[in-house]
Amino acid sequence: MITLDEAQEIISKEFEKIRFTTDPIELYQPIDYILSVGGKRIRPMLTLIACSMFEQDFAKALPTAVGLEMFHNFTLIHDDIMDNANVRRNRQTVHKKWNYNVGILSGDAMCIKAYEQVMRCPAEVFTDVFWIFNRTAIQVCEGQQFDMNFENRNDVSVADYMNMIELKTAVLIAACLQIGALIGGASKKDSETLYEYGKQVGIAFQLQDDLLDVYADEKLLGKEIGKDIISNKKTYLLISALQAAKGERLASLNQWLSLKEFNPQEKVDAIRLIYDELNIRSLCKSAIKECFEKAEKLLVSLSVQDNLKKELRRFAETIKERVF
C-alpha cells in the first residue's frame, strides 16, 4: 500500500519524463505547457492508491493513471475556452497564451494522447477499463453541456446542480478509483463501491470549489476569485441563495444578476454579503459534510483490511481542509 505522498511523487516524476517535441510544435507545445504547470494530480494519485489497496505491484496502473490525468487536463483547456478564463494555476490559460484555435486543437490532441495512455492497461482488464473510460468521457461532456445550459435558465434547482457536478466533476474521480481497483485485481463489488465513494468525494470537492471561488485567497487558489459571481454562474451557493432570499435581498440579488455593466468587485462584494446574511456558506458546508459521511459509510463496507483504507481517509481530510 502506498501513501498519498508517495503516489504524488511517483506521478510527478512520471510527468517530468513526458515531453511532446514532435512537429508541429504549435500543436504540442501547449500540451507540454499545461502538463508542466502541475496541479494537484488528484486523479492519477487515486488511481495508484486504489490499485495498491489490492495489489503490491501498483506500477502496472501508472500508464493508465497518466492517461486519466491527461484527459482531465484536456477538459481544462476546453473549459477555459468556454469560460473565457484568463488564469489557470497562476499562469495564463492556453487560449490566452496562444489563441482559441490552438486551445481547441491542442486540447483535441491531448484527449487522443490520453486514450493512448489509458489503453496501456493490463490486457485482462482492458475491456472493462476502456468501457468505464468511454462512459466517463461522455458523462463529463454531458456535465459541461448542462453547466452551459444553466447559464440561460432561471429555474435551476439544487438537484439539477448536484446532477450536473456529478457528471462534470465527480464521475472522473470515481472512475479513477474504480479503474485503479480493477487493475489491482479488485472484485466487481469492491470496484463499484470505490466508484460510489469517488462520486461522493468528487461532489464534495466541487462544492468546496464553489465555496473557494467566493471565500478563498486568490493567490493561494491560483485563479481569479469571484469569477462565478461575475459571470452569474449557477453554483450551489447562488442557487441556494435564490431559493432562500426574500424581499429586498431577493430584489438586490436579481438586480445584480440582470446588470450588463457593473463594477466586478462591487458585484462580488454585494453578492458575498447576501450569501453571508442568508448563511449560505454554512449551508454549503453542511452539504459537503453529508457527502463525506456517505463516502465514509461506503469505505467501511469495502472488503479490505481497515489499514488499507487509511490513505483514502487522509485524502478526504485534505479536501475538507483545503484552501486552494
Short structural description:
By secondary structure, the chain is mainly α. Helices cover 74% and strands 1% of the residues. It has 16 helices and two strands.
Structural notes for this entry:
The protein has a single domain, classed as Farnesyl Diphosphate Synthase (Orthogonal Bundle), CATH 1.10.600. Helix content is 74%, strand content 1%. The chain contains 16 helices and two strands. It has helices spanning 4-17, 25-37, 42-52, 62-83, 94-97, 100-118, 126-150, 158-183, 188-215, 218-221, 227-230, 236-244, 247-258, 264-277, 280-301, 310-321, and strands at residues 87-88, 91-92. A two-stranded antiparallel sheet has the order 1-2. Helix 1 (4-17) crosses helix 3 and helix 7 (126-150) packs antiparallel against helix 8.
